Amino acid sequence: MKLVSWLLLIFLIGTVAWSCAAEDISANATGYLQVSSVPPGAVVYLDAVYQGITPEPEGFINITNLDPREYSLVLKKPDYVDYISTVKIVST
């Protein structure tokens, strides 16, 4: 029987990138999320939508153009317990 371990999320960032448009800036605000895991090779879902597989430790999955709000983040890897979290992209 294989030992089940927690999938460690080592880098998770949510931040807001502001648009430089001359119109209402708050209407154009979007954010992004960078995800990496140890061990690599975890499948990443954001609000149950497939985003990709985490690369080697020095790389990230970049998820861009996110509206400022809360999202459900899930990382799955065979023989590991799923990592489930809520992430909040905010505007400042």
Structural summary, described in words:
- The protein is mainly beta.
- It has one domain (5-88).
- Helices cover 0% and strands 55% of the residues.
- It has no helices and nine strands.
- It has strands at residues 5-6, 8-17, 30-38, 43-46, 49-53, 61-66, 70-76, 80-81, 83-88.
- The strands form three sheets. It has a four-stranded antiparallel sheet, with no helix packed on it. It has a three-stranded antiparallel sheet with strand order 2-3-6, with no helix packed on it. Strands 1-8 form a two-stranded parallel ribbon.
Instruction: Round the mean pLDDT to the nearest integer and report it.
Output: 77
Strand order of the largest sheet: 5-4-7-9
Shape: globular
Give the distance, in angstroms, between the N- and C-terminal Cα atoms. Answer: 48 Å
Strand content: over 45%
Structural class: mainly beta
Strand segment count: 9
Provide the domain count.
Answer: 1
Outline of this structure?
The chain has 92 residues and is an all-beta fold.
Give structural attributes.
single chain, 92 residues, mainly beta, 4-stranded antiparallel beta sheet, disordered N terminus
Please write out the topology.
Layout lengths: L4 E2 L1 E10 L12 E9 L4 E4 L2 E5 L7 E6 L3 E7 L3 E2 L1 E6 L4
Parallel strand pairs: 1-8
Antiparallel strand pairs: 2-3, 3-6, 4-5, 4-7, 7-9
